[in-house]
Amino acid sequence: MTRFRLPIGGYIALAIAVAVMVLPLLWMLLASFKGQDEIYSLPIQWLPSSFGGANYQAAADAVPFGSFFLNSLITTVFGAGIKIVLGLMTAYALVFVEVPFRKFFFGLVIFALLVPQQIVIIPNYTLVASLGWLNTYQGIIVPGLASAFGTFLFRQHFLSLPISVLEAAALDGAGHWRRLWAFVVPMSTPTIAAVALVSVVTEWNEYLWPLLVIDRPNMMTLPIGLTLLQNTDGVTNWGVLMAGTVLVTLPILIVFFVMQKKIVAGLTAGAVTG
Amino acid sequence: MSTATEVVGAPAGVPRAPRTGAKKKRRGETRVAIYLVAPTLILLAVVIGYPVVSAIIMSFQKDAGLDPATGLFVAGGFAGISNYAHWILQQCLDTSGNTISCPPGNLGSQFWNATGVTFFFAVVTVALETAFGVWMAIIMNRTFRGRGLVRAAILVPWAIPTAVTAKLWFFIFATSGIANALLQTQILWTSDEWASRFAIIIADTWKTTPFMALLILAGLQIIPEDVYEAAKMDGATTFQQFWRITLPLIRPALMVAVLFRILDALRIYDLPAILTGGGGGTGNATTTLSILVVDQIRQGFNSASALSTITFIIIFIVAFIFVRVLGTNVVRTQQAQQKGAAK
């Protein structure tokens, strides 16, 4: 049943699955080139009459997409980057170092996985506000850093690493810091790539928290800015809105297709075999 | 769990150092450990630990504001369990300060409705996503030309922002949108009570099934092929192979995936907030607990804290029941992996 050649029925099922996933996005892309009259035309007009960028121009004129993009980029790079480094350090300590109360620390990590955003959101908001961090990058980034997801996956992966290599490194006088970056990290690239992709996607898509701490348009991230596009005019101009969604989606799709081989390999190489 | 941790931990943690330096070594180890763990611990304490404690404390405080009886501004103070009573028993204060049941329109009166909506979404979406996820994972696990590309294409909906998903489906479900055009209907997908709920379920299933499929695929890949060969020899049908082999073997991975998804689904916010403006139908057909919390934040932190604490407890109970009844154990599964690694 596994890994056998696909029968004809399998190909049809596959085609349906891919179509269901991709067609709505294609519809979005097509609509982003259509004028208002083409979108409302009956019967349905499938293809736009031209592939001009008028809607994109209008979207970029209505809201500052450039600064949205920059804000998203900064929060994503720092947010995901710091999360990964912290996760690696913690997981390394939990697996390879004689940490006192090791089990207790791991329990904390599991607990952090269970805590829903709702309960921490209000105190974190008041904390961020009292620090004067509303409408700042650190206000968006810092409260999201305590993600236990990476630590959890890294720990599981580290447990499967060959201990002999690290013992040899230790005999050669490599300290823990060096053992982590020169031995453990290179041996864990698929898992790191997988965690990186999940973190990048999560950060890029983050909605509720930035919505609360940001109200100045010049500090908004792309998903928040997208809703601003809706609010600027009373009647929904679908073409412009869809152009906006394409602009928000495109960067993450590029990252995704560049890294997709790694993510599937990393997440399926026993990382989440949970 | 304890034995497994030690078996793997001990040889790594204590490299065969000369005996004389053992004590010094140990002190050094502790210091290194502290350096490595400290940043995360501090962060966890500041952005998870402190907020949880302070949310619980806040939930027992009165919201500062205008006293309905006197019209004067009053500072908060200890509220006892009145914030909880407000949500669970729908108790409000009337203009003369008496406890009455909340009038319709007050957020307090929406609590049970929001709880029901949240659970309805969670149960239906997770069930659909699990079923479709298993199906997709099985297809993706087979060998065929262009598998990498197909996997990527199927995963795309998961990668795009929920805000985009919501806008995209808002467009598809618009009154004169393609959904109505193809179905030849005039359904008010974003404002009718049940239609708007189904719109959210469809959008959520579309978005999250790929990730579910990926997690299940991870479980599928550890099943050795010869198990199926043997089953085929014994004349097992495809259905029997699925029911007797695939399902039991992916159960641990499946259960962890379902648990994570349920926890996620119980805090759904973005999709209903954007797709149906948080309301839908009569104004609260798609109001989930998270939306109610955010609405309440604008009216008073303390009462919102009580609501978020209730939500937390609900989620915790669900997770607890799930782990107990279905025997999902996030920790025990590592033992299995360690066993595999030790081979």
From TrEMBL, chain A:
GO terms for cellular component: plasma membrane. Residues 69-259 form the ABC transmembrane type-1 domain. It is a multi-pass membrane protein. Gene3D superfamilies: MetI-like. One of its GO terms (biological process) is transmembrane transport. It is found in: Cell membrane. Its main location: membrane. Keywords: Cell membrane, Membrane, Transmembrane, Transmembrane helix, Transport. The chain crosses the membrane at residues 12-33, 73-97, 104-125, 137-154, 180-201, 238-259. Belongs to the binding-protein-dependent transport system permease family. This is Carbohydrate ABC transporter permease.
Automatic annotation (TrEMBL), chain B:
Signal peptide: none annotated. GO terms for cellular component: plasma membrane. GO terms for biological process: transmembrane transport. It is found in: Cell membrane; Membrane. Keywords: Membrane, Transmembrane, Transmembrane helix, Transport. The keyword Ion transport does not apply. Residues 1-25 are annotated as: Disordered. It is a multi-pass membrane protein. Pfam families: BPD_transp_1. The chain crosses the membrane at residues 32-58, 117-140, 152-174, 194-220, 241-263, 306-327. Residues 115-322 form the ABC transmembrane type-1 domain. Belongs to the binding-protein-dependent transport system permease family. This is Sugar ABC transporter permease. The lineage of its organism: Bacteria, Bacillati, Actinomycetota, Actinomycetes, Micrococcales.
